[in-house]
Amino acid sequence: MYNDGMNPFRDSLACVTGGSSGIGLAIARRLAVHGARIVLIARTPERLSAARADIVSLVPDASVNTVPLDVTDQAAVRQAAADIAAQWGDPRFLFNCAGDALPGRFDRYSGQDLRRMIAVNLEGTWNMTQAFVDALRHTGGHVVNVSSLAGLVGTTGYTAYAASKFAVVGFSEALRNELAADGVRVSVLCPGDTDTPQLAAEQEHKPPETAALSARARVLSPDQVANACLRGVRRGRFLILAGGEAQLIVWLKRFAPGILFRSMDRVVLRARQGTRSAP
């Protein structure tokens, strides 16, 4: 729990990667409502400008700056961190929301597909955190790494994505232990399916078995995930989940994995049988 009331975000500098859309933008919107000073980070300047305009339309007096950046470029990330510190000071919060997903069958993935997801999801999170860690030590800051429910429970069609997101959870857990003595908090956000442009793009590539599993899941809005995220940050939680369904799945994975796995296997088997019997 934070000691400075229920709003640790007010007047704090928060850097948000993947801030031009989806969960990152939704988190940035909520931060603006709570009075944070925001640095939006993403690859495309035009999308960053649109995201900034979106936030300012919601909170006209919001302090929102943008930094075009590819988080997989370690040298560029280090330079951006130095530039941000020089212009706006040391951040108190770092939200690592940049991510990439490409569903598909394991035996059809290319090495390039795997490397792409590892680079964005894991190395990008690593690069940003390492570049800002000294600043976060100075401010007594908080790192929030966005993983996924697929970083806790692997499912068919997401072998490469799950590998990268499980790695983010493991990295975050080790980092939490390493930075606790420095007064830096670490959280990992593991949302399920969320109504974002990325999820829409994934639909075109999902194998039938993956689509069948997804059809059983409730799709969250980015605002629901953002609200759960900031609530978890305020409460000092390490693992942050959004929605009762995710909590149930994680509970089953921990205490009754056989029930969970059998249920998932039945869905996959029926979908595969349906595909084989299709004309």
Roughly how many Å is the radius of gyration? Answer: 19 Å
Would you tell me which CATH topology applies?
Rossmann fold
Low-confidence sequence ranges: none
Q: Widest sheet: strand order?
A: 3-2-1-4-5-6-7
Please provide the count of β strands: 7
H-E order: EHEHEHEHEHEHHHEHH
Number of domains: 1
CATH architectural label = 3-Layer(aba) Sandwich
Estimated share of beta-strand residues: 5-15%
- Secondary-structure-derived class: alpha/beta
The main pleated sheet reads as:
7 strands, parallel
SS field, number of helical segments: 10
* Gross geometry: globular
> What share of the residues lie within helices?
40-55%
* Integer average pLDDT: 95
N- to C-terminal distance: 58 Å
CATH superfamily: NAD(P)-binding Rossmann-like Domain
CATH class: Alpha Beta
